[in-house]
Amino acid sequence: QVQLVESGGGLVQAGGSLRLSCAASGRTFSRYTMGWFRQAPGKEREFVAAVNWSGSSTYYADSVKGRFTISRVNAKNTVYLQMNSLKPEDTAVYSCAASTISFSAYYYSKNDMDYWGKGTLVTVSS
Q: Exposed, middle or buried: residue 8 (CB in 10 Å: 0-12, 13-18, 19+)?
């Protein structure tokens, strides 16, 4: 069992930056592929980024590629999402998730993930 708690959301102007953090409980954090997803009002939850167990491999949705960076520090049981050049369309609740599936470079489905955090709201004003 893994419990995930996100932090770092807030209100930012377009073009600004935020860093989200996701703290995990348990001693097996390094075993999981970790991902970030987001859900905008009235829309389906969508994949944002994923990282493998060691942090050496990552994959991004086309909509955030080049602007967002996912990383992890296993010694701190934490995964991060650095978001730069934010746009109003990035406004959403961002959730981290853990998967027992070995990392592959593809668009993860919400059904691929085993554990979820409750999310943190990011609002980007124009």
A: middle
Q: Cα separation of 72 and 21, whole Å?
A: 9
CA distance 49 to 58: 7
Residue type, 11: L
Spatial distance between the Cα atoms of 105 and 80, rounded to a whole number of angstroms: 18
Return the CA Rg of the chain: 13
Residue appearing with tokens 């944002």: 48
Digit-coded pLDDT (tens) for 6-27: 999 999 999 999 999 999 997 7
State how far the Cα of 51 lies from the Cα of 39, in Å rounded to an integer.
Answer: 19
Tokens representing 116 are 């979820």
Percent of the chain with pLDDT over 90: 90
Q: Residue 103's pLDDT is what?
A: 87
Structural tokens at position 98: 């853990």
CA angle 101-114-123, nearest 5°?
Answer: 110
67 Rama sector, left if φ>0, alpha if ψ -120 to 50, beta otherwise: alpha
